[in-house]
């Protein structure tokens, strides 16, 4: 019986060790590839989720990336102090003002998606005070007027439906919207199986923070992993986050809506709050 028990113990450790060897490997990151989906291969046993064609999720997972090894720069084009938190930079401008920060990065990406698909009537966001400002109003001449920290809308003779005008409209949104308003315009994701690209982790506040889910992989058992992106303060390049806590799967993250906290490269969301913009339900 002693020999049998010893044999079973040896077999147990051999089997366990072989499982670890089989499921652990260096992740394949191909710097020659130019999109999120093509540059970052999921860990062994996982594969990219096929997003619905034309969806915001598909738009994000196929978003173009800058060439590798570029530093994250702020809105003045100066590299930020810490350069060990990103795996890639999204190929999208940050502007020349300190406006496009965390929640604004999500707004920018969603607005660009709507613009690309000519869904102009759907472009509109709330300010932190609850007022709604649509692109349709801006392009026919409505502008904001701020008096004693109160914002109102005035009709001018200026009309502009150009892409350059659209960027100026977004600057207005970035100035008056943020994590508080984005949180109010969104609904909680209540099931882990429902988390998808385009959802975001968020902590509303002044300051608060948000991180965007830009890629999803799944294994045969249904377990999912996620790629996260963010901007920060000061306004800076939108970048893919590395996973310091689990470097063996970086830049992929595990997410759980019931977790008491979620640790990302530069921020701890406590509690975990994953939400979806109301128009994307």
UniProtKB/TrEMBL annotation:
InterPro entries: DUF4846 (IPR032315)
Pfam families tied to this protein: DUF4846 (PF16138)
Annotated protein name in UniProt: DUF4846 domain-containing protein
Lineage: Bacteria, Pseudomonadati, Bacteroidota, Flavobacteriia, Flavobacteriales
């Amino acid at each position: 019986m002693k020999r049998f028990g010893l044999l079973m113990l040896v077999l147990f450790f051999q089997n366990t060790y072989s499982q670890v060897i089989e499921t652990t490997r260096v992740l394949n990151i191909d710097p020659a590839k130019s999109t999120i989906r093509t540059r970052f291969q999921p860990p062994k046993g996982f594969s990219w989720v096929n997003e619905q064609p034309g969806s915001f999720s598909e738009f994000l997972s196929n978003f173009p990336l800058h060439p590798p090894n570029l530093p994250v720069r702020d809105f003045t084009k100066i590299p930020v102090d810490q350069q060990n938190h990103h795996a890639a930079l999204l190929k999208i401008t940050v502007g020349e003002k300190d406006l496009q920060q965390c929640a604004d990065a999500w707004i920018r990406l969603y607005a660009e998606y709507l613009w690309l698909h000519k869904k102009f009537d759907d472009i509109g966001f709330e300010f932190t005070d609850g007022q709604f400002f649509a692109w349709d109003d801006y392009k026919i001449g409505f502008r904001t007027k701020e008096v004693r920290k109160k914002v109102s809308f005035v009709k001018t003779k200026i009309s502009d439906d150009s892409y350059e005008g659209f960027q100026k409209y977004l600057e207005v949104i970035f100035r008056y919207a943020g994590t508080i308003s984005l949180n109010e315009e969104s609904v909680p994701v209540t099931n882990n199986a429902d988390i998808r690209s385009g959802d975001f982790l968020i902590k509303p506040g002044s300051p608060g923070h948000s991180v965007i889910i830009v890629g999803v992989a799944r294994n045969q058992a249904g377990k999912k992993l996620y790629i996260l992106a963010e901007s920060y303060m000061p306004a800076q390049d939108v970048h893919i986050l590395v996973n310091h806590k689990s470097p063996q799967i970086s830049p992929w993250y595990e997410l759980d809506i019931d977790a008491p906290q979620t640790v990302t490269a530069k921020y701890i969301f406590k509690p975990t709050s994953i939400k979806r913009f109301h128009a994307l339900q």
